[in-house]
Design a protein that fits this description.
Strand content: 15-25%
Number of helices: 28
Largest sheet: 8 strands, mixed
Distance between the termini: 18 Å
Structural class: alpha/beta
Strand order of the largest sheet: 1-2-3-4-5-6-8-7
Radius of gyration: 32 Å
Length: about 950
């Protein structure tokens, strides 16, 4: 909403303060600044507030607002006086206001940094978390305007408001003065306030999804009068699934006297239904959707599934239509799945909801599935159905203009019916939030992701999201850092999902292989080695093996403390008449089930070739209830480097560890992830089974490490000048910074980095041979002569660097060779630098991606590493564990640890440098790019020979601000 012309012209309406938020009960509301046009809304709102709430606000009976009050509460300068309102359906349900004051409590202007704050929430909306959301937003506004503290006077009986302030997590002080509670809140975010904010966000967004998945009543809008069509299909599927709630059919073309259709009450509009409707499935043409949404909003519908097409997938006009759809739905407090959605399914026995176009609903199970593509959703449902897998919930979100995979991660995190989350994503609307939510969810249950549209360079049609500039390999690395199991295809996703849902997590990488085919066993053995596992020599039972032989061998393997998982390979066995018998799959499955059920909790996978009925029999659960199984323990024999950042070189996968119960503080669930439920996953190829098993091993390893999170060493604080660096950055950027950014000179970069304990070896310009000799005399021999021209920078292979120049004669000769070979000094921009100790040349970089956030990168210097893409990445802020893993995760890491008899380099110093760079970028978002190249790591210490730093006005940090729904 824009202000009226009479609004104060010198403070423009701050439209960036507008935000859609999810409240505690899962409904949405809009927060926006109050303007002069809101006088009637304010009066109407105040009339609906109880006398008690008015008394709490004004400390006296205050039945109505005077004209002067209305003027005061609707006229703000958006700096010293600010008012925000929460609206639903365009009407106020709550307000908050601050007024800047001085130390005596009188009205003031900047530089006064304190403000008095007061809230008023309509009684009908109290208890929905409205005031808590308002406090987050008004605090962010105040910080933006230079206010650092809020003061509030609250009557002692106003327990609800006192609780809002007390539970916010800000540093606060309380006193009792003149019959009221005086509260002072420091508005600087704290770890506690951020945790409170994110906890509220999780509960609210999970509740908003739960309202969609477990409605008490569903109305299908657009049910055709004749069989067929989208709406009629959804209605048929709802009835076929046995939905436990009430169902209604809506079509404005129904005859006035028509009472039912397919046995369901028929209505011409939602408004004709005289009972509450929780969920509406919209299946009408796009031009009729706004009417349907308005009808739903007026009737109090809680959520929408919009199957209608014709939105952002159709271009700019459709994108505008999609934005308006979201705006309209949220204005009524509703959330949307879609548009262009395929629908959603909830297999809970108490719900049995199939509000989708899927004709064959999956069986109940413990896998949650989210897709952004209807076609992929159909394929996944079909594949899971064929393999006997069951789902807890299924969502195909289409253009996912509102509800996204992030929302379902919030829901699945604490859903006791879901043990594994599978997501097919074509775009990430908020990568920072996705990584944060995925890391938290992965700590209690596996998250498996397939990312489509990886190499197209743009988002798919219909997905209006920020474009990330980071390559797909970086995205994959960041997902794995968060514990996400990233796979390349939907087939691999199903393979991994089945193993993780049906089997316990492996305690280590040791694999026993047994079967009746030596060749198939060898293929499995090779596949294990290729995936970094530790296979034992295959046990060949010969082609004469009977199901009882398989049972005995599997039982023995499971009981062996020397293995952590078992792969069973099977081909049709030969009968007494010499003919292959392929129809006894049920008998073999029963034998394997018996052995697995009686043995220790270790994962079992089966690779089979043309054994009829085996896969189906293995998929049949012997129990439908997940049994609690312990999660993998912290591995005491894992490489110390992974835990402490020592100089231990990277090695093979760690040895197994005894299992340990889930870490405290995790979400309550019915069973541990991968609890064995009687099903044994079967695969038609050894490579597929082993790949799924390897993903489970890597995930279990991450899970063990995540139980003891890394930290930023405190010793860094003693050598870091954060305030001085902030002042230097402000000086360099100036009062009116260029939005394109500022590339620092070498001297400026050296000064900035030095304030964080990062020393860059100085260079001196050498525009001619005499200047080079003078520079060398100043620095001391031996020296290096190198060019700094952009096209030759860091290109020793082109001859732009001369090293170990021990005297003036050698320096002058090198200068002549350099200029004679590559060009004139003015083009080459040569410099002289003192020699560093010999070591391994590496590169450390940090950059801010507009979508993913700050990313720390590491690799070896030189063309081979660049050509092979051998660079590792971690999100900022990096912990000590992240730094240790970063340098060990590149393929060329053995070079740092004494490859071919060389002396190991000082990786501890390298880890410290990575942490300092991470801390600098995290503390100062204006530092948008750092490149340290080369960093020469010697056996003792390291030397930074070159540095490049770029500053820019800080980008918005949506992950740290108050809660808000994205607007794409």
């Amino acid at each position: 909403m824009q202000p009226a012309p009479e609004q104060s012209p010198h403070h423009a309406y701050p439209d960036h303060w507008e935000a859609d938020v999810v409240l505690r009960d899962g409904g949405t509301a809009r927060i926006r600044p109050i303007t002069t046009d809101d006088a009637e809304r304010l009066v109407s709102f105040y009339e609906q507030v109880s006398d008690e709430s008015k008394y709490y606000r004004f400390f006296a009976p205050y039945p109505r607002l005077s004209d002067r009050d209305v003027h005061r509460f609707t006229h703000h300068d958006y700096v010293d006086r600010v008012g925000l309102a929460v609206t639903v359906g365009g009407e106020f349900i709550a307000t908050v206001r601050y007024d800047r004051i001085d130390e005596r409590g009188r009205p003031a202007s900047a530089p006064a940094d304190q403000a008095e704050v007061a809230f008023l929430v309509q009684d009908a909306h109290q208890g929905r978390g409205v005031a808590s959301a308002l406090l987050e937003h008004i605090a962010a506004v105040a910080r933006e305007r230079g206010i650092r503290r809020f003061a509030a006077e609250v009557l002692p009986a106003n327990n609800k408001m006192i609780k809002v302030f007390r539970d916010a997590g800000y540093t606060q002080r309380r006193s009792f003065e003149d019959g009221s509670v005086h509260l002072t809140l420091d508005l600087e975010p704290t770890a506690e306030s951020l945790a409170v904010q994110r906890g509220r966000e999780q509960r609210a967004e999970a509740r908003s999804v739960q309202r969609l998945l477990a409605p008490g009543s569903v109305a299908v809008i657009g049910v055709g009068r004749t069989p067929g069509g989208v709406g009629r299909t959804v209605l048929r599927n709802l009835l076929g699934a046995g939905f436990t709630g009430r169902t209604y059919a809506v079509n404005r073309a129904f005859a006035a006297g028509q009472a039912t259709i397919d046995g369901v009450p028929a209505h011409r509009s939602i408004g004709e239904i005289d009972e509450p409707v929780d969920l509406a499935v919209v299946a009408v043409p796009a031009d009729r959707v706004p009417e349907a949404v308005a009808d739903c909003g007026e009737h109090g519908v809680q959520g929408l599934v919009v199957l209608s097409a014709g939105y952002a997938e159709w271009g700019a006009e459709g994108r505008d239509r999609q934005r308006e759809l979201v705006r309209q739905a949220r204005s009524y407090g509703m959330r949307i799945i879609g548009p262009n959605a395929f629908g959603l399914i909830n297999n809970a026995e108490t719900v049995r909801l199939n509000a989708s176009l899927a004709p064959e609903p999956p069986a109940p199970g413990r896998i949650g599935l989210f897709t952004q593509s209807g076609a992929i959703g159909i394929a996944l449902l079909s594949g899971l159905y064929r393999r006997g897998a069951g789902l807890s919930t299924f969502i195909s979100a289409g253009n996912r203009a509102d509800i996204s995979g992030n929302d379902f991660l919030q829901y699945w995190y604490e859903d006791p019916d879901t043990d594994v989350a599978l997501l097919y994503l074509e775009s990430l609307g908020n990568p920072r939030k996705f990584t944060r939510l995925a890391r938290r969810t992965a700590a209690v249950k596996p998250v498996v992701v397939v990312k489509g549209a990886r190499h197209s360079g743009s988002t798919p049609p219909g997905h209006a999201v920020p474009i990330s500039r980071i390559p797909d390999a970086t995205v994959s690395a960041l997902m794995r850092q968060a514990g996400v199991i990233r796979v390349d295809t939907v087939t691999e996703m199903v393979d991994a999902g089945l193993l993780l849902a049906d089997q316990p997590l492996p305690a280590g990488p040791r694999v026993a292989i047994l079967g009746n085919s030596e060749s198939l066993g060898l293929l499995t053995y090779d596949a294990c080695l290729a995936e970094g596992l530790r296979p034992r020599p295959p046990l060949d039972l010969t082609t004469a093996a009977t199901p009882q032989d398989f049972r005995n061998a599997l039982a023995e393997a499971l009981a062996d403390d020397g293995c952590d998982s078992v792969v069973v390979t099977a081909i049709p066995w030969v009968g007494e008449d010499g003919e292959a018998e392929s129809g006894d799959g049920e008998v073999l499955a029963a034998a394997l089930h018996t052995a697995a059920a009686a043995g220790p909790a270790k994962p079992v996978a089966v690779v089979h070739v043309e054994i009829g009925g085996l896969a189906e029999a293995l998929a049949a659960a012997t129990s439908t209830v997940a049994q609690p199984r312990p999660a993998p323990a912290q591995n005491p024999t894992a490489p110390a480097a992974a835990r402490t950042g020592s100089t231990t070189p990277p090695g093979p996968a760690p040895a197994p560890a005894a299992p340990l119960a889930d870490a405290p503080g995790t979400a309550p669930r019915a069973g541990a992830p991968g609890a064995r439920n009687g099903r044994i996953p079967a695969y038609p190829a050894a490579e597929r089974a082993v790949r799924a098993l390897a993903e489970a091993v890597r995930y279990a390893q991450w899970r063990r490490q995540a139980a003891v999170p890394g930290k930023v060493p405190e010793f860094l604080d003693d050598t870091i000048d954060e305030p001085g660096t902030a002042g230097l950055i402000d000086t360099l950027l100036g009062p009116d910074p260029d939005p394109r950014g500022l590339q620092l000179t070498p001297g400026q970069a050296r000064e900035l980095l030095g304030r964080y304990g990062i020393t860059v070896r100085p260079t001196l310009p050498a525009p001619d041979p005499d200047a080079a000799v003078a520079a060398a005399a100043r620095l001391g021999y031996p020296v290096a002569l190198k060019t700094t021209a952009p096209h030759l920078r860091h290109r020793a292979d082109l001859g732009g660097v001369r090293l170990d120049l021990a005297n003036e004669t050698a320096l002058r000769r090198a200068y002549g060779e350099l200029t004679g070979l590559l060009g004139k000094p003015a083009e080459l921009q040569p410099v002289v630098q003192s020699m560093a100790p010999r070591g391994v040349d590496t590169v450390v970089r940090a950059a801010i991606d507009p979508a993913a956030g700050a990313v720390l990168s590491f690799g070896l210097a030189g063309a081979p590493s660049e050509l092979l893409g051998d660079t590792a990445h971690r999100l900022v802020p990096a912990t000590d564990r992240d730094a240790a893993e970063l340098i060990r995760s590149i393929r060329a890491a053995p070079v740092l640890f004494g490859w071919r008899g060389a002396a190991p380099v000082d990786t501890a110093s390298l880890e410290e440098l990575l942490l300092r760079v991470s801390r600098l970028v995290d503390d100062h978002p204006e530092v948008v790019s750092i490149a340290l190249e080369p960093v020469v790591v010697a056996t003792q210490g390291l030397t930074v020979l070159g540095a490049s730093v770029r500053l820019s006005p800080p980008p918005a940090r949506t992950d740290l601000g108050p809660r808000r729904l994205p607007n794409y």
